[in-house]
Write a structure and sequence with these properties.
Bound molecules: adenosine-5'-diphosphate, magnesium ion
Number of domains: 4
Distance between the termini: 59 Å
CATH superfamily of the largest domain: P-loop containing nucleotide triphosphate hydrolases
CATH topology of the largest domain: Rossmann fold
Order of helices and strands: HHEEHEHEHEHHEHEHEHHHHHHHHHH
Helix content: 40-55%
Strand order of the largest sheet: 5-6-7-4-8
CATH architecture of the largest domain: 3-Layer(aba) Sandwich
Low-confidence stretches: 93-119
Radius of gyration: 28 Å
Number of strands: 8
Strand content: 5-15%
Shape: globular
């Protein structure tokens, strides 16, 4: 037999064996687990007594080698006696030479075992209602959260669905509800009994569910979840595409609501925008109270900085806070991070916090923000949104249907870039800096009075920031 024929024969044999190994694996672990963890495993080849399998991410690789490494090896050995070792690796990125792939982890003892995922997440001490700063963008969500904490499972507030972009306070509000509730005894028929609250990320929910499947303890898992008074699931968008977990969540959800328990959910989008979630789940999620955490305003950012500085007991000049609030507009987490860095730096070098040190210490952070969005991108998005030509951004026309979008684009340029007013004016047909200033105050005022307009502007901001 010619060498190449022998090789392709061997390859065929191996492919057949792999198909049969997969079938056995599926039989062994069940459909759900198989689909969640093992479906993406692919065969790379055999080299001597070593067989190599591939997974697309390091996380999956670690998980699969830890949880299924020995099972896979023994099934392979029963299929093909020449296999001694099964190596599970991550796929080299497309276009990268295979020898640049990450070194494989030892299939018997993977690098770092995942933290056990079967405990309900602990609550962050800092995330209470006391430390949550309320302003226009979050006052509605805050009020809803307060209400649920005072009177869980009230009609119209169940489920409470909180949504908004990254770092705007969803998790903070959920923990605040949980703290409040776990300190307060129940009212109503079960009066006096402490409230049991289960808070976890959707990701953790899935791990727990999968673990329960593996340990054949799904019944306990269900009973445990269904025995709580309040169930909170954070970052629900994680369940998109995880059909079995979604299914299980849906049943738990229904059982709890039917039993008069409170559910609190957070996600990065509203229920109707969470495409990829099952329709019936989306419908149920939207039928309680849906509250949006809007992007922060300058005023809110200043209040947050003041509150944090006060709490930390450091003296931060107003000018520095204004500087931060102007520059870091995307989310509160980053704003906090910048403040912490300033404080740490001041402590370390025993120096006052000044505008100069702020510039110096945050140089790289701010540069990263500047790179995020350009005036051209803003103009393009805004023009598309109101269906006008991008050239109108620089034109002299003053009719309302082009002047208003132009003002919005100037406003967003001021909010999202670090360009100066004259600089912004130059991008808009060489307009004067006072025109830009006027646009900014006009848009700000209008956002305060016209909710639909405010929503448009926030939407644009979010699209530009993502
Ligand atoms: P999300 O869950 O929406 O991504 P988090 O709740 O984790 O955001 O908030 C990110 C960080 O910002 C947290 O440290 C949180 O305490 C802080 N934060 C967000 N909003 C506020 C607020 N209104 N007042 C005080 N801190 C806030
Ligand atoms: Mg969060």
């Amino acid at each position: 037999m010619a060498q190449s024929e022998r090789e392709s024969g061997h390859e065929n044999l191996l492919t057949n064996q792999w198909a049969s190994v997969r079938a056995k694996l599926q039989q062994e672990v069940g459909d759900v687990e198989y689909r969640t963890w093992l479906k993406q495993v692919s065969l790379a080849g055999q080299d001597g007594d070593e067989l190599t399998l591939m997974l697309p991410t390091r996380f999956l690789r670690d998980w699969v080698s830890k949880e299924y490494g020995s099972l896979i090896t023994s099934i392979w050995q029963s299929e093909n006696a020449s296999v001694r070792r099964v190596d599970i690796r991550t796929q080299p990125a497309r276009g990268t030479a295979p020898n640049l792939a990450e070194p494989a982890s030892n299939p018997v003892a993977p690098a770092r075992p995942e933290a056990r995922a079967d405990v309900i997440a602990p609550l962050d001490q800092r995330f209470t209602f006391d430390t949550f700063v309320v302003g226009k963008p979050n006052e509605f969500a805050y009020a809803c959260a307060r209400r649920v904490a005072e009177a869980p499972a009230t009609q119209g507030f169940n489920p409470l669905f909180l949504y908004g972009g990254v770092g705007l306070g969803k998790t903070h509000l959920m923990h605040a509800i949980a703290w409040e509730l776990s300190n307060a005894p129940l009212q109503g028929p079960a009066k006096g009994k402490p409230v049991s609250v289960a808070y976890m990320s959707a990701e953790k929910f899935m791990y727990r569910f999968i673990n329960a499947l593996r340990n054949q303890s799904t019944l306990e898992f269900k009973n445990e979840l269904r025995s709580v008074d309040v169930l909170m699931i954070d970052d629900l968008q994680f369940l998109i595409g995880k059909d079995n977990t979604q299914e299980e969540f849906f049943h738990t959800f229904n059982a709890l609501v039917d039993a008069g328990k409170q559910i609190v959910i957070s996600a990065d989008k509203s229920p109707s925008d969470l495409s990829g979630l099952e329709d019936r789940l989306r419908t149920r999620l939207g039928c309680g109270m849906v509250a949006d955490l809007h992007a922060t305003t300058f005023e809110l950012r200043i209040s947050i900085l003041e509150a944090k500085a006060l709490r930390a007991g450091v003296d931060v000049p107003a000018k520095v806070m204004e500087f931060l609030a102007h520059k870091i507009t995307s989310n509160v987490r980053e704003l906090e991070g910048a403040l912490n860095r300033l404080v740490a730096h001041a402590n370390l070098f025993d120096r006052q916090i000044t505008l100069e040190t702020a510039h110096e210490v945050l140089h790289d952070v701010l540069k990263a923000f500047d790179r995020r969005v350009t005036i051209q991108e803003i103009q393009k998005k805004v023009a598309e949104h109101w269906n006008i030509k991008i050239s109108e951004m620089s034109s002299a026309r003053r009719s309302r249907n082009v002047a208003r979008p132009r003002q919005v684009a100037m406003y967003l340029a001021k909010q999202l870039t670090s360009k100066s007013l004259p600089d912004i004016g130059r991008h808009f047909g060489d307009r004067d800096h006072t025109t830009v200033m006027h646009a900014v105050s006009r848009v700000t005022a209008l956002m305060g009075t016209d909710a639909a307009f405010a929503e448009d502007v926030e939407l644009l901001r979010r699209m530009l920031e993502s």
